[in-house]
């Protein structure tokens, strides 16, 4: 299984939001109009870029020369990602991708260098034979490595050549020994389900076209992904969110069982950002989507396994090329107040409010704003031992500089956000490790 990130990353994130700055009352003279706290952060300079990919040199932030390198850990190549995994015999290992993929023991011994590399889709007993495997995606390729040796067990190259594999792995067909991988093509039109049996070669259970041919230039859509929905025993569903579409497929057959083609803010929009399955207050299954790139929006979809799904609510903030300064950054989609229903938590610079920064918490099923924190930015969330989450919030002024310290706000079922004092017991949560250069950090 894949584990959460280490706690020191949370500390680093908190240190990042604590790094305030002093100076003039307006936006930075060298970057007029750019409202970004990092512009004032002389303690943590780095290359910045806004949502229109404008580059800002870190050397303008009061620096006169490039910083010295104080320490280096040699990883061989350019470190891409590290994951802690646990093997079938309960050993903690590190999977390190620095161009190559390597399995490393916790005392630093390189156990193997893999025959393939890529993004990690799964680590575990893929074939149900008691051995661990590593499932990797890279462009249009899916590779499976033996986790004991790093040797390639299986590899499949999908068409078309420009497609990217989007993959989820689970035992969605319990009647078939071994687990299954659903693979949908970003930049392509095909999807399939692959079974990995313990005593035979992997087998493609079904393969089909998963879009309406000609309805959209799929090659131009950077926002395609899938999720398994195993909430109904014996009726596994694959949900696929793409540019202005959300569809459900019977994972057993590939048959399309649900379709929604929808508009946000009066147009077909890009879904470039995180999305997740959730639960409405009445228990209905939903998907919440945050558009973070190019077109900034949040919306919720009420899912129907037996017909068209429904766009339950939406809020469109704008497109960066048409409304410069608009920005949205999703912190999490989940049950942050521990009441059983899903919320979506995000930062936004709202054009309708003069681009002031807000932290907003909306009910995932209805879009109702449960909590709104004006002139604030949330850097991440921490789960609490008794359930629910704390928001790590920094108050900031209109020019983007800190207007106070960091507050920990606990969300309550009533919709209240109560500030915590002292040092509450916190556990790390994925949202706190984000490190995104941009208007918010
Ligand atoms: Ca199975
Ligand atoms: Ca909730």
Shape verdict: globular
Strand order of the largest sheet: 3-4-5-6
Q: Compute the gyration radius: what is it?
A: 23 Å
Instruction: Tell me the name of the CATH homologous superfamily of one domain.
Output: YVTN repeat-like/Quinoprotein amine dehydrogenase
> Which ions and ligands are bound to the chains?
calcium ion
Work out the strand percent: 35-45%
Query: Count of DSSP helices?
Result: 1
Describe this structure in a few short sentences.
With 441 residues, the chain is an all-beta fold. The chain has one helix at residues 7-18; strands at 48-49, 55-56, 81-86, 92-97, 101-105, 110-113, 119-124, 133-138, 141-146, 152-157, 164-170, 179-186, 190-196, 203-209, 225-229, 237-242, 245-250, 256-261, 275-279, 285-291, 295-302, 310-319, 327-334, 343-350, 356-363, 369-374, 376-383, 389-396, 402-411, 417-420.
Could you characterize what this model shows?
By secondary structure, the chain is mainly beta. It has a domain at 78-209: Methylamine Dehydrogenase, Chain H (7 Propeller). 3% of the residues lie in helices and 43% in strands. The chain contains one helix and 30 strands. Strands 3-4-5-6 form a four-stranded antiparallel β-sheet, with no helix packed on it. It has a four-stranded antiparallel β-sheet with strand order 7-8-9-10, with no helix packed on it. A four-stranded antiparallel β-sheet has the order 11-12-13-14, with no helix packed on it. A hairpin with a 2-residue loop joins β8 (133-138) and β9. It is globular. The structure holds calcium ion (2 copies). One calcium ion (CA) binds at residues 171, 173-174, 176, 178-180.
């Amino acid at each position: 299984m894949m584990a959460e990130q280490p706690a020191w990353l949370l500390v680093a994130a908190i240190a990042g939001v604590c790094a305030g700055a002093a100076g003039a009352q307006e936006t930075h003279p060298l970057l007029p109009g750019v409202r970004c706290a990092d512009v004032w952060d002389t303690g943590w300079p780095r290359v910045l870029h806004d949502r229109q990919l404008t580059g800002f040199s870190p050397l303008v932030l009061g620096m006169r020369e490039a910083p010295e390198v104080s320490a280096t850990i040699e990883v061989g190549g350019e470190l891409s990602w590290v994951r802690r995994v646990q093997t079938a015999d309960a050993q903690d290992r590190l999977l390190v991708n620095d161009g190559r993929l390597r399995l490393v023991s916790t005392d630093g011994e390189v156990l193997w260098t893999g025959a393939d590399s890529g993004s990690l889709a799964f680590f575990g007993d893929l074939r149900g034979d008691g051995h661990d495997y590593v499932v990797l995606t890279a462009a249009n390729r899916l590779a499976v490595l033996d986790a004991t040796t790093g040797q390639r067990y299986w590899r499949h190259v999908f068409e078309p050549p420009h497609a990217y594999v989007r993959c989820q792995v689970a035992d969605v067909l319990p009647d078939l020994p071994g687990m299954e991988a659903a693979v949908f093509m970003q930049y392509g039109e095909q999807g399939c389900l692959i079974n990995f049996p313990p005593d035979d070669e992997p087998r493609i259970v079904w393969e089909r076209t998963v879009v309406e041919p000609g309805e959209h230039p799929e090659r131009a859509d950077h926002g395609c992904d899938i999720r398994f929905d195993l909430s109904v025993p014996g009726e596994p569903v694959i949900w696929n969110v793409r540019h202005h579409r959300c569809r459900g497929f019977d994972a057993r057959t590939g048959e399309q069982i649900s379709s929604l083609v929808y508009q946000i803010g009066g147009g077909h929009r890009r879904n470039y950002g995180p999305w997740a399955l959730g639960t409405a207050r009445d228990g209905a299954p939903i998907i919440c989507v945050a558009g973070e790139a190019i077109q900034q929006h949040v919306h919720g979809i009420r899912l129907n396994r037996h017909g068209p799904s429904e766009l339950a609510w939406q809020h469109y903030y704008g497109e960066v090329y048409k409304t410069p300064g608009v920005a949205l950054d999703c912190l999490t989609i989940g049950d942050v107040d521990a009441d059983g229903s899903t919320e979506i938590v995000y930062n936004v610079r709202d054009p309708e409010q003069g681009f002031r920064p807000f932290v907003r918490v909306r009910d995932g099923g209805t879009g109702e704003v449960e909590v709104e924190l004006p002139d604030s930015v949330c850097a991440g969330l921490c789960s609490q031992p008794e359930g629910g989450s704390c928001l790590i919030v920094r108050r900031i002024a209109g020019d983007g500089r800190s207007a106070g310290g960091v507050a920990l706000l606990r969300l309550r079922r009533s919709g209240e956000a109560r500030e915590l004092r002292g040092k509450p017991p916190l556990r790390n949560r994925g949202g706190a490790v984000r490190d995104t250069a941009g208007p918010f950090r």
